[in-house]
């Protein structure tokens, strides 16, 4: 007789106790013979981490017994390990073969040639986006392992899929579809060792944070450099999920919460989606987590990791991050940050509970969610905020923290935090957030990108932004930005030299050549286009360095030519003579021969009239 996971869970804890006893026996045998493979019962970094707080909760009943036929590798191996890429998909392939409700689709290959697999779970057994969209149910895209050492979502998702097929939870797909990417950063996942993620309690072996090209995928949403991210963005455009969940594990301070999650703010580009997330989604998810013995909370970012009383930061993410990107493209996006100091088992179970509750909630609330998304996509705000200033929030936070003390370190020569493992409530902590609008711009009718900026056009296309191409020259009155005082990053960041500059604008009349790309802003991704093309936006393609060649001077004038040219210009233009006399009142300028000659060159017809001018034009 085959036992299902539901039938075997009554003996799960007994089995784990037996497994632990067996592991202890193995240790004794190994000590005598030193040949038997051992099941590890501790993590290599246990001794250097803050005290581990023992946890038990109702969600432990979700675990299958380790000897169950459909136990996941995580459940089979003492709740401390996570399977390799090959082991993960060997197990999933076996599960998929048992049901028509599961299909496996590759969204693309990694730089090292691995498929990035997505499991499509639907009652109809859809294996392509066209078929899935026909069922009119909302889809949840769940992504694990964007930082592949932070892999809780993979093991939680495997358990949940198993229970949908064999555990009596197929009804979760009655009103929703699940798109599950077990491992996003697949190459980094295989750079696995017990010495990765030193601040994290398990699993025993963890993948690497960045890709095989050493790029951070959760800094790549806006610029879309990596193959992995380009595949994911295309998948989002093709499969059109209504909710996107990005699963991480924290770094930082110790506290009581085990599952924290958040999304962008009411002040962002998707206010209707925010209201749904805050007033429909969060209450349902937190109630489910509490009922199962977990302690949910908002995202935690301390202003000072050595002094909790200074307060917490309310993060308003920009589009380089998953949740900031979701806000910009009006795709409600949840960032889960499980607490790194909680044991792997606790984190996986909390993630399972959250994913199951998500499918239930989105099924019940699909009409409200879809309505909110449509409102955000088509509201076309006449002014968009590009940057935000920090301000204290009206509401403080009664923070469920952990006690600590400061001790003088002989190693570092300064004070260091010592967490004591004791729960402590920090009442009414101040909360500082980027919620005060700073730089704003009017919404243009359209942008025009010259055809030679192929990388820019390609990235806009990858995002799914609609564009049209001019088939004949077009004379138009447009707005152009002029830059001054450019400041370049002094070090490489994510493969780019970032840049900021002072911005002014001028109205020009110009003839746009054939091949120029027009981007209308009254489209569902119009807000995203604005944030990518406005140069004062922190995650604009301009600030990421895609237009850096415009700051390179390539033609020059020799002193022997500019000096007589300057004399001729002054003789012909008394107003220029007066302007030059005024400039000479600056003693630094007056004492700099090169600056004086350059002053005339910049006002001559020989000067490069495209130097430091933004090639992307605006139509107001």
Please describe the structure with a list of short key phrases separated by commas or semicolons.
32% helix; 21 strands; eight-stranded mixed sheet; 620 residues; alpha/beta; 22% strand; single chain; disordered N terminus
Polypeptide structure, described:
It contains 18 helices and 21 strands. By secondary structure, the protein is α/β, with parallel strands linked by helices. The radius of gyration is 29 Å and the shape is globular. The longest helix is centred in the N-terminal third of the chain and has 22 residues, at about 10-35. The chain has helices spanning about 5-10, 10-35, 75, 85-95, 130-135, 150-165, 185-190, 225-240, 270-290, 320-330, 345-365, 365-375, 455-465, 525-535, 560-570, 575-585, 585-590, 595-600; strands at about 100-110, 115-120, 140-145, 175-180, 245-250, 260, 295, 310-315, 335-340, 385, 390, 395-410, 415-430, 430-435, 440, 445-450, 470, 475-490, 500-510, 515-520, 615-620. Helix 9 (about 270-290) runs antiparallel to helix 12 (about 365-375) and helix 15 packs across helix 16.
């Amino acid at each position: 007789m085959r036992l299902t996971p539901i039938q075997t869970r009554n003996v799960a804890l007994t089995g784990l106790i037996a497994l632990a006893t067996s592991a202890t026996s193995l240790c004794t045998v190994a000590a005598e013979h030193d040949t038997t493979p051992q099941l590890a019962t501790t993590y290599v970094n246990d001794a250097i981490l803050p005290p581990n707080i023992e946890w038990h909760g109702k969600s432990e009943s979700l675990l299958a017994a380790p000897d169950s036929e459909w136990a996941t590798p995580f459940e089979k191996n003492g709740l401390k390990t996570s399977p390799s890429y090959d082991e993960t998909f060997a197990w999933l392939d076996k599960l998929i073969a048992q049901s028509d409700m599961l299909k496996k689709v590759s969204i693309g290959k990694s730089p090292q040639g691995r498929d990035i697999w997505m499991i499509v779970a639907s009652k109809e057994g859809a294996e392509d986006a066209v078929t899935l969209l026909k069922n009119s149910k909302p889809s949840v895209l769940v992504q694990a392992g964007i930082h592949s050492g932070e892999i809780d979502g993979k093991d939680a998702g495997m358990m949940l899929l198993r229970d949908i097929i064999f555990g009596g939870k197929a009804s979760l797909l009655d009103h929703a579809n699940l798109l599950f990417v077990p491992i996003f950063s697949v190459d980094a996942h295989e750079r696995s060792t017990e010495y990765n993620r030193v601040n994290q309690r398990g699993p025993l072996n963890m993948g690497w944070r960045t890709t095989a090209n050493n790029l951070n995928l959760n800094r790549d949403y806006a610029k879309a450099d990596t193959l992995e991210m380009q595949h994911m963005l295309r998948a989002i455009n093709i499969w059109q999920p209504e909710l996107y969940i990005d699963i991480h594990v924290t770094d930082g301070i110790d506290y009581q919460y085990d599952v924290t999650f958040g999304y962008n703010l009411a002040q962002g580009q998707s206010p209707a989606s925010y209201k749904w997330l805050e007033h429909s989604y969060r209450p349902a998810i937190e109630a489910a987590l509490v009922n199962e013995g977990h302690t949910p909370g908002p995202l935690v970012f301390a202003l000072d990791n050595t002094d909790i009383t200074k307060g917490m930061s309310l993060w308003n993410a920009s589009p380089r991050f998953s949740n900031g990107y979701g806000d910009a493209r009006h795709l409600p996006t949840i960032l889960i940050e499980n607490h790194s100091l909680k044991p792997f088992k606790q984190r996986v179970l909390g993630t399972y509970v959250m994913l199951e509750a998500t499918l239930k909630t989105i099924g019940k609330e699909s009409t409200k969610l879809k309505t909110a998304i449509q409102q955000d996509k088509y509201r076309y705000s006449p002014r968009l905020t590009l940057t935000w200033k920090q301000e204290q929030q009206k509401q403080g936070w009664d923070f469920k923290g952990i006690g600590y003390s400061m001790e003088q370190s002989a190693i570092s020569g300064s004070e260091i935090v010592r967490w004591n493992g004791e729960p402590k409530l920090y009442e009414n902590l101040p909360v500082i957030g980027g919620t005060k609008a700073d730089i704003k711009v009017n919404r243009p009718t359209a942008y025009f990108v010259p055809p030679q900026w192929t990388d820019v056009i390609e990235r806009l296309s990858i995002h799914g932004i609609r564009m049209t191409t001019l088939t004949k020259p077009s004379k138009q009155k447009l707005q152009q930005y002029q830059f001054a005082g450019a400041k370049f990053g002094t070090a490489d960041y994510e493969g780019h030299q970032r840049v900021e500059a002072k911005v002014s604008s001028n109205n020009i009349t110009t003839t746009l050549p054939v091949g120029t790309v027009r981007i209308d802003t009254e489209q569902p991704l119009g807000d995203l286009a604005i944030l990518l093309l406005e140069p004062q936006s922190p995650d604009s393609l301009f600030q990421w360095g895609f237009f850096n060649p415009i700051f390179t001077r390539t033609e020059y004038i020799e002193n022997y030519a500019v000096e007589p040219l300057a004399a001729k210009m002054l003789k012909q233009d008394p107003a220029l003579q007066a302007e030059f006399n005024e400039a000479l009142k600056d003693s630094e300028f007056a004492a700099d021969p090169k600056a004086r000659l350059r002053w005339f060159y910049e006002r001559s017809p020989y000067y490069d009239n495209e130097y430091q001018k933004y090639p992307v034009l605006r139509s107001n």
